[in-house]
Amino acid sequence: MTANERPSVRPANPHFSSGPCAKRPGWNIKNLEAALVGRSHRSKPGKARLLDAIEKTRKILNVPADYRIGIVPASDTGAFEMAMWTMLGARGLDMLAWESFGEGWVTDAVKQLKLKDTRLLKAEYGQLPDLASVNFDNDVMFTWNGTTSGVRVPNGDWIPADRKGLTLCDATSAAFAQDLAWSKLDVVTYSWQKVLGGEAAHGMLILSPRAVERLESYTPAWPLPKIFRMTKGGKLIEGIFKGETINTPSMICVEDYIDALDWSDSIGGLKGLMARADANAAVIGEFVQRAPWIEYLAEKAETRSNTSVCLRFTDPKVAGLSDDEQAAFAKSVADMLDKEGVANDINGYRDAPAGLRIWAGATVETADMRALMPWVEWAYGEAFAKL
Q1: Measured between alpha carbons, how far is 266 from 61 in angstroms, rounded to an integer?
Q2: Per residue in 129-159, pLDDT tens?
Q3: What integer is the mean pLDDT of 248-265?
Q4: Whole-number pLDDT of residue 386
Q5: What secondary structure, in 3-state letters, does the chain show?
Q6: Is the pLDDT assigned to residue 1 strictly greater than 90?
Q7: What is the C-alpha separation between 178 and 145, in angstroms, rounded?
Q8: Residue 175 CB neighbour total at 10 angstroms
Q9: What is the pLDDT of residue 62?
Q10: Rounded mean pLDDT of the chain?
Q11: Residue 308 and residue 311: Cα distance in Å, rounded?
């Protein structure tokens, strides 16, 4: 294919957005016909369906039996805020940030909760902070996979088993695609609309026994909104983690999540999901290796995400543009792909360096990823010719 020759093969599904993400292969609205619409979520069948979602989550993610799993309001944001507002302040806090969502948690800890004993370990887009310098006598707050930078922690080896503080992990673009080190994590949050392509507005909050102990032994200095309260009389409200949700969930969304979990089980569970994401990421890797004008934003191979793959344009003519001009160039490439109907919503995140962000999670078909790469090359050639 010459630089500006329009490819002949199109992805069957153009949904490469990093959230909400593509629905599972074969998804159909009819899959949700069994949803308990018009019924109370507190009815016996309603609670049973919510508990089913929790139990299937535990099975697919290999969550330890003594960890609590709860369905909570307001997506991953709500889940992580619940953990921050109820647990932080008992110890000092080490805050790790290397992209926009991690930086958002830092803002909330410092400016909203006004925590005094804090330490920020920050890295630029494409890098990780020095993990060896983290003080685990403090609580530690981090994202497992930086959705807007495409940089993830390589594993959980940097977290000691004998830590004194809690580890709070935003895992929303890692859960179901990367192997979370459960023994090293005390709080894990994620949303349905990421790796499994579920519907939005609900979050998952997973707590270790150490996190439960913190909840039952520590009372924050600030008032807690009702939807954040997880204890009563100094004891955990166990019902939250058995399907008795804090507020009213959408039973259609719950049914959709269960459908995605059942599909996950049918393809081999977590191993099958990870293999699909790895295969998609490998297609992008082969393309990057071949194309001299594009590179990963993540600088080290071992920290590159297999879900939110962030790319930057490296040709000197593009790299020499101003930041605003680079952003306009990247947007023009993404807009062409969107207009052609081959890739929706893959422009880089607004706060990240200019480039593309392509979702490679398990619900994306590898054949579609292969079909997309020539289109990226075509769109780049079209935009480059106009410089």
Answers
A1: 14
A2: 999 999 999 999 999 999 999 999 999 999 9
A3: 98
A4: 95
A5: CCCCCCCCCCCCCCECCCCCCCCCCCCCHHHHCCCCCCCCCCCHHHHHHHHHHHHHHHHHHCCCCCCEEEEEECHHHHHHHHHHHHHCCCCCEEEEECCHHHHHHHHHHHHHCCCCCEEEEECCCCCCCCHHHCCCCCEEEEECEECCCCEECCCCCCCCCCCCCCEEEECCCCCCCCCCCHHHCCEEEEECCCCCCCCCCEEEEEECHHHHHHHHHCCCCCCCCHHHCCEECCEECHHHHHCCCCCCCCHHHHHHHHHHHHHHHHCCHHHHHHHHHHHHHHHHHHHHHHCCCEEECCCCHHHECCCEEEEEECCHHHHCCCHHHHHHHHHHHHHHHHHCCCCECCECCCCCCCCEEEECCCCCCHHHHHHHHHHHHHHHHHHHHCC
A6: no
A7: 9
A8: 30
A9: 98
A10: 97
A11: 10
C-alpha 301/C-alpha 151 separation (Å) is: 9
Does pLDDT of 222 surpass 60? Answer: yes
Gap between the Cα atoms of 44 and 47, Å rounded: 5
Q: Cβ distance 181 to 155 under 8 Å? A: yes
What confidence score (pLDDT) does residue 3 get? 59
Asked whether the predicted pLDDT for residue 2 surpasses 60, the reply is: no
Domains of the chain by residue range: 32-265, 268-385
CB-CB neighbours of 146 under 10 Å: 34
CATH of domain 268-385: 3.90.1150.10
**268-385 shares the fold of 32-265:** no
Tens digits of residue pLDDT in 90-130? 999 999 999 999 999 999 999 999 999 999 999 999 999 99
The residue type found at 324 is: D
* Architecture category of domain 32-265 in CATH: 3-Layer(aba) Sandwich (3.40)
For position 4, what pLDDT does the model report? 81
User: Mean pLDDT throughout 16-36?
Assistant: 97
